[in-house]
Amino acid sequence: MRIVKSVAGMQRLARQWQREGIRVGLVPTMGYLHAGHLSLVKKARGIVGARGKAVVSIYVNPTQFGPQEDFSRYPRDLKRDASLCQAEGVDIVFAPSDDEMYARNESGVFSTFVVEEALSRGMEGTSRPTHFRGVSTIVAKLYNLVLPDVAVFGAAPGSAWLLIFEKT
Fold first, then answer.
1. What is the mean pLDDT of residues 39-44?
2. Among 17, 37, 116, 160, which one carries the catalytic annotation?
3. N or C: which end of the chain has fewer CB within 10 A?
4. Structural contact between residues 148 and 25, judged by C-beta atoms closer than 8 angstroms
5. Residue 34 among the catalytic residues
6. Could you tell me what percent of the chain has a pLDDT over 70?
7. What is the pLDDT of residue 166?
8. How far is CA 165 from CA 26, 89, 93, in A?
């Protein structure tokens, strides 16, 4: 198992696998893995097969946290997560930094997002106005970096699921 921390490194691997016709399964997570996440890894592995590649992304996405939500207190333990992934037969843990995932403008802020205009206005979108913009953006980025044939998601709040399925 390899840990890839750079966008360029993940892109190189994804393009190589694509050229070689290797199926790729992505399990997007924010880390601090548990049995539910590991069951998603097994599902992804089952879909892509032994010859395929199972990729787990571990990234706590700052853009899906609102101003009143505590991004800094979200639990993180990459060493533990990597050990669990290795035991489950994951090929790649993609664990980029914020600087890798989001280009900053001259003011030092993220400025490019994927915005869904209808679904995100309802449900919990009214109380978490930037959450779905962050989810849409990171899902699009991960799809474009990893180039998966399949992505396996865990349980999410209802509107997050609708948003993800609308994007795919």
1. 93
2. 37
3. C
4. yes
5. no
6. 86
7. 40
8. 15, 27, 24
pTM attached to this predicted model: 0.88
Which amino acid does the sequence have at 165?
F
Q: Which amino acid does the sequence have at 78?
A: L
| 3-state SS assignment for residue 102 | coil
Which pLDDT value is given to residue 123?
63
Residue identified by tokens 């590991």 is: 38
Q: Rounded to an integer, what is the distance from CA 33 to the centroid of its chain?
A: 13
pLDDT of 164 = 42
Let me know if 113 is exposed, middle or buried by CB neighbors in 10 A (0-12, 13-18, 19+).
middle
Report how far residue 8's alpha carbon sits from residue 107's, in angstroms, rounded to the nearest whole number.
24
Q: What is the DSSP letter of 161?
A: H
List, in order, residues 6 or more apart from 158 with CB less than 8 Å away. Answer: 123
pLDDT for 60 beyond 60: yes
What mean pLDDT comes out for the span 75-83? 97
What residues contact 70, with CB distance under 8 A and at least 6 apart?
none
List, in sequence order, every residue forming a beta bridge with 28; answer none if it has no partner.
Answer: 57
pLDDT of residue 136: 86
Lookup result for tokens 């980025």: 141
